[in-house]
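Lab notebook, design round three. We kept the backbone fixed and only want residue identities now. Task for the bench partner: fill in a sequence for the structure below.
Input structure tokens:
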């Protein structure tokens, strides 16, 4: 295990969506209050125990936003607070557990283990000084600190893996972009290289013919030059159109990834069909609208897109597990319906338990052949 001193902070390491869970983790402080129920304290001592929560929560967020180089300061502050609270209440073990988590999260296994040993020694010293009966305070404390510390180690490794996966996706995206640029450059060179050379040659020849007063031949060269220019323009337009139309398969991948980035698991069933350019473009817009609505409004945890052939029609079912509410057809649903109608298909949806949208489009002969194989 390498040293994590050069790693990003706990907050920066987590995705933005995870930041909101900082408050949720404080629910573990419920164990701080349990001893107060069994061992009622005097009003002054109770006030001190409750007042200790204020600086502790401040240290918690200090540690949560720290880097591994600076996390030692809030961790030590929390240990000091836990030591001060221990003579008043054994609920201080809850403070020690947070310390164990941050030690496991920020430091390598070797340093984390040394930190757990140090806290165990502190617990033993407190047990002797305060005079707790038996050694349950020490034993429970060591068990809790070690167990929660293991969770800290697991969380650190989970976030490291997540960063590595994101880095891999970024590298793949960069590589794909580079390859696409090379393909565009190669295509433009192949298309325009010969054409521009011919245009330059024809222009030069026409200029010489004009200088020699051979106007008929010069006019013929200019007409050929004009024809080459028109053909080159057509080729460039066709090439640009092919770049703009990436295809259903290529367009669907980033849409599904955007759902996964929100935490929605995606299931893709059936074969992605090969459709004509117009139908494929409209279907891409339909799926984009559906995904956009899910990202904005849905509370789903899982969704499914299913492609299948029903007779001479292509059926696309889009459904998720969100609890269905009465659906008011806004611009998005109306836009989907209009696109489907323009393609000669049908659009329907169900909202009995979950959302289920169904699009049926007529299949071309080529698409029919694909599904019949």
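Proposed sequence:
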């Amino acid at each position: 295990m390498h040293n994590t001193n050069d790693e990003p902070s706990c907050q920066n390491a987590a995705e933005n969506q995870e930041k909101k869970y900082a408050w949720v983790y404080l629910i573990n402080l419920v164990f701080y209050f349990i001893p107060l129920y069994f061992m009622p304290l005097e009003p002054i001592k109770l006030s001190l125990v409750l007042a200790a929560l204020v600086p502790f929560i401040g240290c918690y967020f200090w540690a949560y936003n720290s880097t591994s180089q600076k996390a030692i300061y809030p961790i030590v502050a929390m240990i000091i607070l836990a030591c001060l609270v221990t003579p008043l209440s054994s609920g201080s073990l809850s403070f020690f557990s947070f310390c164990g988590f941050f030690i496991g999260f920020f430091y390598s296994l070797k340093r984390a283990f040394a930190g757990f040993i140090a806290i165990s020694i502190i617990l033993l010293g407190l047990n002797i000084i305060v005079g707790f009966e038996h050694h349950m305070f020490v034993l429970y404390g060591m068990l809790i600190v070690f167990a929660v510390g293991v969770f800290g180690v697991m969380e650190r490794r989970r976030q490291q893996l997540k960063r590595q996966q994101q880095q891999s996706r970024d590298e793949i995206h960069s590589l794909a972009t580079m390859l696409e640029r090379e393909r565009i450059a190669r295509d433009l060179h192949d298309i325009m290289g010969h054409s521009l050379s011919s245009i330059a040659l024809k222009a030069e020849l026409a200029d010489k013919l004009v200088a020699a007063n051979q106007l008929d031949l010069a006019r013929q060269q200019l007409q050929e030059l004009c024809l080459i220019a028109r053909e080159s323009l057509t080729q460039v337009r066709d090439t640009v159109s092919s770049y703009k139309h990436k295809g259903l398969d290529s367009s669907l991948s980033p849409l599904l990834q955007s759902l996964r980035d929100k935490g929605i698991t995606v299931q893709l069933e059936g074969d992605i069909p090969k459709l004509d350019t117009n139908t494929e473009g409209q279907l891409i817009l339909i799926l984009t609208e559906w995904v956009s609505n899910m990202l904005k409004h849905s509370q789903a945890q899982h969704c499914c897109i299913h492609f299948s052939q029903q007779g001479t029609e292509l059926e696309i079912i889009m459904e998720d597990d969100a609890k269905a509410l009465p659906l008011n057809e806004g611009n998005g649903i109306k836009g989907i319906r209009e696109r489907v109608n323009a393609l000669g298909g049908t659009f329907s949806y169900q909202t009995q338990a979950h959302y289920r949208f169904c699009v049926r489009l007529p299949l071309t002969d080529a698409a029919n052949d694909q599904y019949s194989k």
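Keep this in mind before ordering anything: The longest strand covers residues 313-323.
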